[in-house]
Amino acid sequence: MSSPLRAPARTRTPGRKGLALAASAGLALPLMISSPALSHGYTTSPPSRSSLCATGQVQNCGPIQWEPQSVEGPKGFPQAGPADGRICAAGDSRWAPLDDPRGGQWPATRMNGGQAFTFTWRLTAVHATTSFRYFVTRNGWDPSAPLTRAALDPQPFLTRNYGGQRPPSTVSHPATLPAKQGRHLILAVWDIADTPNAFYSCADVDFG
C-alpha cells in the first residue's frame, strides 16, 4: 500500500520588519569598516620613547611597540591633560612603560643648546590641527623620576599653530634649541582641533 502524499513544506517569507533589520545590519558592517581612522602620530626626530620601542632599540615596552602612534589623551596641557607621572603615556595605562624613567637610562639624542634643530613627526593618520607645542624640562630636574608639570619649563619653547588645517603625513618644525646643558626630556604635544584629545610624545635628549 502506497504512502499518502504529503504537502510540500511551506517556506517562511520574512516580513517587512525582518527585511528592514537585515538591510540595516548589512549596511552597518560596511559603514563600520569604511569609517575613517582617527589621527595618530609620534616624533621621529628626536626619536620619542614610543619610536625607540617600535624600532626595537628599547625592549620590554609592552604593546606600544606595535602602536607607537597611539599615545593619545585629553588635551588642554598643562592646565588639563594627563596627570603628573602619566604624561608620557598620555594617561593611558596600556602605554605605562613610557612613563617609567628606567633610572634615567633611556637612549638620549645628542643636541647642542642654542643651535638649530628640526623636529619631525610621522603621522599615520592626519587630522584637523590646532597646534604642535614643545616643552623641555627645567635645569636640575630629576631624570630618574616620572615626568611631572613641575619638572617642565612652564612655557613651550616652540609652538606651531595650524588654525584647524590638516598637516602632511610627515611634519617638520625647524627651531632654535633652548640653551640647556646635560640630560633633558622634550615633551611634544599635538593638539587636535576637532576632538577633545591630543597626542603626547616624550623624547630623551642630551645637550652635552
TrEMBL record:
<dbReference type="InterPro" id="IPR051024">
    <property type="entry name" value="GlcNAc_Chitin_IntDeg"/>
</dbReference>
<protein>
    <submittedName>
        <fullName>Chitin-binding protein</fullName>
    </submittedName>
</protein>
<feature type="domain" description="Chitin-binding type-4">
    <location>
        <begin position="40"/>
        <end position="205"/>
    </location>
</feature>
<dbReference type="InterPro" id="IPR004302">
    <property type="entry name" value="Cellulose/chitin-bd_N"/>
</dbReference>
<keyword id="KW-0732">Signal</keyword>
<feature type="region of interest" description="Disordered">
    <location>
        <begin position="75"/>
        <end position="108"/>
    </location>
</feature>
<dbReference type="InterPro" id="IPR014756">
    <property type="entry name" value="Ig_E-set"/>
</dbReference>
<dbReference type="Pfam" id="PF03067">
    <property type="entry name" value="LPMO_10"/>
</dbReference>
